[in-house]
């Protein structure tokens, strides 16, 4: 029998969680960041996160450790930040969300929604005052954009900032604010006389208060709050001088959406891995359920969408690192990856049967969390319309 000329060159079967050998496309530094965060998640987050989810508490004790790993503002340069690449940041988000969306949300809000606007639009004094402390985890930030009556249509926010001599007076409220209850500062967007402006509001400022949102069925291991401003007077020097209008908050949202596109693949991978191992060990009708066609169909669908989402994220990161990224590309990735991660979680839950609804396994926890990820930083519908406008040239927003 003559051996096929291609046989000698055929590679071994790839790892079942990396069917396209994406690992080969990463640099040594990127693999090191991924593996370091994966180890931290395995050792420090996974053993405790189910209890925090059930109790509705955020594991604040992890903040110094996350800071020590350089994960707070890791994609920013200088001011005590790690200055790592966009791909490194994405890989870290992927591994953190494999642990829990709430942990990745904390990192995203701190780095992309609170530190980034100060870095991009703040004065040098504001940067020097806040960014080193935030990178060390000594100061926690939050991002105030969404309001009780304005979500997707943020340009019509009601929170106002009235100039009064050397001060601004803020009135209004913000809703669904991650980290709000523990934040030392809030980056708040408000309507001023000259357009939408960003302000740094410190905890303890008279007229500024927060209240946490309870009875959540999603992101339970994360702090979600309301911010209230009642004649809150702040110095004019706490306004971010480098931006005016919706470009400011939207650029911050793009930073966060980028991390979400990566992070959701981590949640999907975690669900797929658990479902695969369960299917191989669960015996029904005297054989593992992994041998049944319907189960294999579900697993193949999960594996395929995971590969596609990871490749989409990696290319998005390469575009960001090369300076060629466009917001439409971020919307496309966020929309696809979160949508498919949620579908993966639901398929994985069905493979586990009744066991899939317990906290003994992470699947329903991920599934519930992804319902929030599906909505925040731009709903699935909004990202659909963003991409739709880009490909048709027609806006469906107005």
UniProtKB/TrEMBL annotation:
Swiss-Prot/TrEMBL cofactor(s): FAD
Pfam families: Acyl-CoA_dh_1, Acyl-CoA_dh_M, Acyl-CoA_dh_N
Gene3D superfamilies per the UniProt record, alphabetical: Acyl-CoA dehydrogenase/oxidase, N-terminal domain (1.10.540.10), Butyryl-CoA Dehydrogenase, subunit A, domain 2 (2.40.110.10), Butyryl-CoA Dehydrogenase, subunit A, domain 3 (1.20.140.10)
GO biological process assignments: fatty acid beta-oxidation using acyl-CoA dehydrogenase; fatty-acyl-CoA biosynthetic process
InterPro entries: Acyl-CoA_Oxase/DH_mid-dom, Acyl-CoA_Oxase/DH_mid-dom_sf, AcylCo_DH-like_C, AcylCo_DH/oxidase_C, AcylCoA_DH/ox_N, AcylCoA_DH/ox_N_sf, AcylCoA_DH/oxidase_NM_dom_sf, Glutaryl-CoA_DH_mitochondrial
Keyword Flavoprotein: yes
Gene Ontology MF: a single term: flavin adenine dinucleotide binding
Domain Acyl-CoA dehydrogenase/oxidase C-terminal: 244-391
Entry protein name: Glutaryl-CoA dehydrogenase
